[in-house]
Amino acid sequence: QKEVEQNSGPLSVPEGAIASLNCTYSDRGSQSFFWYRQYSGKSPELIMSIYSNGDKEDGRFTAQLNKASQYVSLLIRDSQPSDSATYLCAEDSGGGADGLTFGKGTHLIIQP
Amino acid sequence: GAVVSQHPSWVICKSGTSVKIECRSLDFQATTMFWYRQFPKQSLMLMATSNEGSKATYEQGVEKDKFLINHASLTLSTLTVTSAHPEDSSFYICSARDTMGQETQYFGPGTRLLVL
Q: What share of chain B in percent tops pLDDT 90?
C-alpha cells in the first residue's frame, strides 16, 4: 500500500517569511513527485513537479527531493496571504499510467 | 494550455437516481484520465483510471457497477454514479494526462454531488 504522509497542520507563518512544507512517501519505486495547492472548495492546482534528487526552483517556490530519505519538501519564500491554502503532496510510481497517491495535505495559514 | 473542464460543477439529486459527470480535455488529447473523490477535510482518493477505448481500471473498494466510466474519445471521459445514495455525496474531480508522454496530471474544477 503506497502511502504519502504530511503533517496536517495548521502551519502558521508570518507574511514575508519562508513556509516549509514536508512530505514523506513509502514507495521506493516512486519517480515523480508533485505539490498541489488547493483552496477551500476548489480542485487542486499544480505548483511544482520534481523528478530528480536536489532542488528545483520556480519563482518563490522551491521543491526539494531526497530519494534516499524518501522525503519531499516545498519552500515558499516571501509568503503572501494568498498562499494560505492546503498543500497536497502527491507521488506517481506508475510512470504516468497510474493515478496519483496524495497525502492528506498541510493547511497553511499566512498571517498578515 | 492544459485545461480540463467538468460538467456539471454541482448537482443535487434524489436518492436512487443516476448522475453523469463529464470530464473534457479542452486543448490536448488525453489517452488516460483519472477520477478522484474527495470527502470533506480528506485528501483526494483515486477511484479509477480511464483509458480511451478500453475498460476502466478501478481501485480496490470502488464498485465498478456503481461508478460507470466511459472514455469514448481522446478528449472526453464520463463518470456515471448509478442509484446514488447520500453516502455518495462528495467532490468528484477528474484529471487528464496528455498523450505527449508528460507525467503531469491536469485537474478539472470538480463536481460537487449532493444526494438527498
A: 71
The set of cell numbers assigned to A81 is 496571504
* Chain A CB within 8 Å of residue B108 CB: yes
Residue tagged 466511459 (cell numbers): B70
Do A97 and B102 count as a contact with CB atoms less than 8 A apart?
no
All cell numbers assigned to B59: 481501485
How many residues belong to chain A? Answer: 112
Mean pLDDT of B26-37: 90
Among A84-88, A104-108, B40-44, B78-82, whose mean pLDDT is lowest?
B40-44
Cell numbers that stand for A96 in this block: 504516468
Distance CA B89, CA B6 (A): 17
3-state secondary structure chain A: CCCEECCCCCEEEECCCCEEEEEEECCCCCCEEEEEEECCCCCCEEEEEECCCEEEEECCEEEEEECCCCEEEEEECCCCHHHCEEEEEEEECCCCCCCCEECCCEEEEEEC
CB pairs under 8 A between A and B: 58
- Span B69-96, mean pLDDT? 94
A63 touches chain B (CB under 8 A): no
CA of B25 vs chain A CAs: smallest distance (Å): 15
pLDDT for residue A96: 61
